[in-house]
């Protein structure tokens, strides 16, 4: 086969390939080995699915519905290119009795549109808006595997890990933020075995590239306006601030000040800032005024006002992104946006409180979700490696020898079952 990402090579008999794949799938689920003719990309995906604890008879869970789904879709960047998807893929899906589907970066379906009869059939396997079709949730499938691998992929019939999905064939391609390169989600075409053709994969890939081109010309929902300050403070000791087209790296003290002023758009008095920034009560107002004067020069004219001290532009920060996603129940997306503790080296009292508040909120949501992938992401990060409660929860959901060994080591070292390592 010339292209390993295409399901069927020219001249292959689809019916015979389906029978061979079903035998291979049964062998894998029974013995854990992957015989021919399973493609390497599918074999690797089956193994990842099994490691994630996905069962071959499972189905997708619906995580968002009703007003929550509507609000999440409205704020998602791919909402801006849905008219393009409908124009390029909509008639193809409807005429061919296929489905057009769009998912987010976590494999959660946002839109599923197309032929009415096909949609009714798809409802039976929860291929519906709001359902999570991540590879780690339902196994090998085109939209979930496309975002997992960050590349276009075609999945044919019994290549799907879930038996319930094996009557279907799909092709999907990831869509990226043209400004950052981050995966926003994927566009997918799902239907019968007739889609197992190189043209369907090339078509959906071309649609994804067209969407990225349009996104580069538009300001997607949620992208800051020109007069908005973009603040990045998670996982870094010194903030990065995007100001009027320039990226500034702030000192540690200036980073703390900007975080606190962003938190209080109404402003803070000099005394309030002193209490928020310094544990040492001997620090004088003169010291603070000097810091603010230096910060004003760094930011440029007109951005830092006084009496009270406040920022004159709207601030969009990575902290508020995590908080908004938690508020809407998008826990997986919140975990994805949380790249580390807020200014981890800061000892400013107000910053320490905010850091703990954010970490505790996300951690609580992860524990409540009971998702082994999300818990593993926290547990294996530097800020979660000593989190005893998370490791215990992970051991319950994913009782592998590695997890149990780490848990025993933690319990021996900490000797305090009620404590967790957390974020300081």
Task: Report on the architecture of this protein.
The chain is α+β, with helices and mostly antiparallel strands. The protein has three domains: 14-217, GAF domain (Beta-Lactamase, 2-Layer Sandwich), CATH 3.30.450; 225-368, no CATH class; 370-424, no CATH class. The chain has helices at residues 14-31, 40-51, 66-75, 82-95, 116-123, 135-138, 142-149, 198-217, 252-263, 270-277, 285-299, 318-327, 331-337, 349-369, 372-379, 388-397, 401-414; strands at residues 99-104, 109-114, 153-156, 169-176, 183-191, 229-232, 240-243, 246-249, 304-305, 310-311, 315-317. The strands form three sheets. Strands 2-1-5-4-3 form a five-stranded antiparallel beta sheet, sandwiched between helices. Strands 8-7-6-11 form a four-stranded mixed beta sheet. A hairpin with a 7-residue loop joins β6 and β7. The radius of gyration is 25 Å and the shape is globular. The N and C termini lie far apart (53 Å). 39% of the residues are buried. Mean pLDDT is 88; it is low at 220-226 and 417-424.
Secondary-structure blueprint:
Blueprint: H1 14-31, H2 40-51, H3 66-75, H4 82-95, E1 99-104, E2 109-114, H5 116-123, H6 135-138, H7 142-149, E3 153-156, E4 169-176, E5 183-191, H8 198-217, E6 229-232, E7 240-243, E8 246-249, H9 252-263, H10 270-277, H11 285-299, E9 304-305, E10 310-311, E11 315-317, H12 318-327, H13 331-337, H14 349-369, H15 372-379, H16 388-397, H17 401-414
Parallel strand pairs: 6-11
Antiparallel strand pairs: 1-2, 1-5, 3-4, 4-5, 6-7, 7-8, 9-10
Helix pairs in contact: 4-8, 12-13, 12-14, 13-14, 15-16, 16-17
């Amino acid at each position: 086969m010339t292209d390993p990402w295409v399901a069927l090579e020219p001249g292959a008999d689809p019916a015979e390939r389906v029978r061979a794949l079903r035998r291979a799938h049964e062998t894998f689920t029974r013995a854990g080995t992957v015989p021919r003719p399973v493609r390497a990309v599918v074999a690797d995906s089956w193994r990842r699915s099994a490691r994630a604890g996905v069962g071959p008879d499972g189905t997708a869970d619906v995580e968002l519905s009703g007003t929550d789904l509507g609000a999440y879709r409205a704020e998602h960047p791919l909402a801006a290119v849905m008219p393009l998807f409908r124009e390029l893929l909509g008639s193809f899906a409807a005429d061919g009795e296929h489905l057009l589907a769009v998912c987010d970066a976590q494999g959660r379906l946002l839109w599923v549109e197309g032929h009415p009869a096909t949609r009714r059939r798809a409802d039976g396997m929860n291929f519906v808006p709001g359902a999570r079709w991540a590879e780690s949730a339902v196994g090998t499938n085109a939209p979930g595997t496309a975002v997992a691998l960050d590349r276009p992929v075609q999945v044919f019939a019994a290549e799907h890990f879930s038996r319930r999905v094996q009557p279907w064939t799909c092709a999907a391609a990831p869509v990226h933020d043209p400004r950052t390169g981050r995966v926003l989600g994927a566009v997918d075409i799902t239907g019968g075995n007739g889609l197992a053709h190189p043209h369907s994969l090339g078509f959906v890939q071309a649609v994804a590239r067209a969407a990225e081109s349009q996104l580069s010309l538009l300001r997607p929902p949620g992208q800051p306006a020109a007069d908005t300050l973009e603040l990045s403070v998670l996982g870094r000791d010194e903030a990065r601030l995007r100001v009027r087209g320039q990226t500034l790296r702030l000192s540690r003290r200036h980073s703390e000040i900007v975080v606190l002023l962003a938190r209080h758009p109404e402003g803070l008095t000099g005394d309030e800032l002193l209490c928020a920034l310094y544990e040492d009560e001997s620090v004088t107002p003169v010291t603070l005024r000097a810091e603010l004067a230096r910060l004003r020069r760094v930011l440029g004219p007109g951005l830092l006002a006084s009496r009270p001290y406040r920022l004159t532009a709207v601030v969009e920060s990575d902290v508020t992104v995590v908080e908004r996603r938690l508020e809407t129940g998008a826990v997986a997306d919140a975990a994805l946006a949380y790249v580390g503790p807020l200014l981890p080296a800061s000892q400013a009292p107000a910053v320490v409180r905010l850091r703990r508040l954010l970490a505790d909120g996300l951690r609580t949501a992860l524990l409540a979700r009971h998702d082994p992938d999300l818990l593993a992401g926290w547990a294996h990060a530097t800020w979660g490696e000593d989190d005893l409660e998370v490791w215990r929860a992970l051991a319950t959901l994913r009782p592998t020898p590695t997890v149990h060994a780490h848990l025993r080591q933690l319990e021996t070292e900490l000797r305090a079952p009620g404590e967790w390592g957390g974020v300081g």
